[in-house]
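TA notes, week 10

Several of you asked for a full example with nothing omitted. So below is the full record: structure tokens for the whole chain, then the designed sequence directly under it. When grading your own attempts, check the secondary structure regions first.
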């Protein structure tokens, strides 16, 4: 069994999709959700899903002090992989060096196009006919790590921003959990699902 931690800051729809996939697979565990925003909806989702949650605010603390606490939580629980699911802080070289496992992130554009926090709007306004998502391994840059997977759809130009956003989120919820499960399987070696009694 491999162990996952999910970092998130917002609503938690991708966290819920990841949690459902890990639960259905029956061979790995989400050790905890880490959130940096008090009152974020993702904390409620974690409670509903029975996933332990850690609230770790950056307020009044240096980035390195917060990241040292993050690393201690990860080490204490033996976490193998960290998935960023709408985590709105940039991790520093300190964190990426201190945590020895892979850190994977989801981005709502076809990288290297439209990195950063406004990717959906920038993709929508671009006039590009092909839009989509990227799953990357996190490095020290902003959305510059190696791309592990890209998935896309074509638009005809009549779609609203809300319709495009909905299609992007559907791709995220379908494909990000798959990549994470494959990575957990690779850490753990070949496994079979636990038989249900």
């Amino acid at each position: 069994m491999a162990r996952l931690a999910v970092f998130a800051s917002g609503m938690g729809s991708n966290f819920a999709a990841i949690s459902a996939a890990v639960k259905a697979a029956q061979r790995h565990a989400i050790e905890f959700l880490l959130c940096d925003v008090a009152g974020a909806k993702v904390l409620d989702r974690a409670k509903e899903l029975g996933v332990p949650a850690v609230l770790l605010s950056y307020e009044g603390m240096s980035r390195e002090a917060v990241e040292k606490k993050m690393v201690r939580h990860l080490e204490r629980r033996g976490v193998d992989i960290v998935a960023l699911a709408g985590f709105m802080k940039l991790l520093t070289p300190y964190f990426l060096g201190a945590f020895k496992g892979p850190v994977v992130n989801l981005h709502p554009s076809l990288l290297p196009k439209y990195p950063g926090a406004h990717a959906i709007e920038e993709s929508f306004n671009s006039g590009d006919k092909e839009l989509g998502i990227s799953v990357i391994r996190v490095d020290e840059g902003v959305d510059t790590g190696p791309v592990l997977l890209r998935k896309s759809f074509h638009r005809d130009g009549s779609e609203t921003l809300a319709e495009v956003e909905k299609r992007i989120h559907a791709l995220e919820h379908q494909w990000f959990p798959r990549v994470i499960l494959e990575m957990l399987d690779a850490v753990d070696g070949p496994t079979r699902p636990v038989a249900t009694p």
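The longest helix spans residues 161-188. Use that as a sanity check on your answer.
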